[in-house]
Amino acid sequence: MLADFQIRAVLDNAARAAAREPSTASALLACRRVTPMPWHRDVLDAAVQRARAAGLTIPVFTVVWVAGEPDLADGAIRYDYGTRAAVIALSVFTDPHSLLRTCLHELAHLSDFSSGHTYSRADLESRAEHFVRSVMMC
Ligand SMILES: [Zn+2]
Fold first, then answer.
1. What's the CA-to-centroid distance between 106 and ligand 1, angstroms?
2. pLDDT in tens, 83-95
């Protein structure tokens, strides 16, 4: 049983994370759009294949490749619950291993968003990281 102050701390952390996530997507989507190298697309395709093979349902999504900036995340997702439109923004300034990790993380979010379940931000992040770890170990 959690004490009130512990519950407040959990909610505060989730709220902070939720407030950060949309701004991360907005910041990344505001970066200069670029054409990826073939290996960037190959890594994304591999991530989608691995995610599907691992049982995730991956609906259609749009990818925006950007010249990410050093203080931003390598990837982010924007999902519209009304239209079910998903945009995944990915920075081209990342190494293949990190890009694969980032793609799997965002694809896990996409699967969760489109599933119809409602997860807290903390649960979404936890689920995505758990998924990445499970797939990267294979
Ligand atoms: Zn995330």
1. 6
2. 999 999 999 999 9
Expressed in angstroms and rounded, the spacing between residue 39 Cα and the centre of ligand 1 is 23
Quote the Cα angle for 39-80-107, to 5°. Answer: 35
Exposure string (b/e) for 22-54, b if CB count within 10 Å is 16 or more? eebbebbeebeeeebeeebeebbeebbebbeee
Compute the radius of gyration of the chain from its Cα atoms: 15
State the pTM of this model.
0.83
CA of 121 relative to ligand 1 center, distance in Å = 8
Domains and their CATH numbers in the chain: 4-136 (3.30.2010)
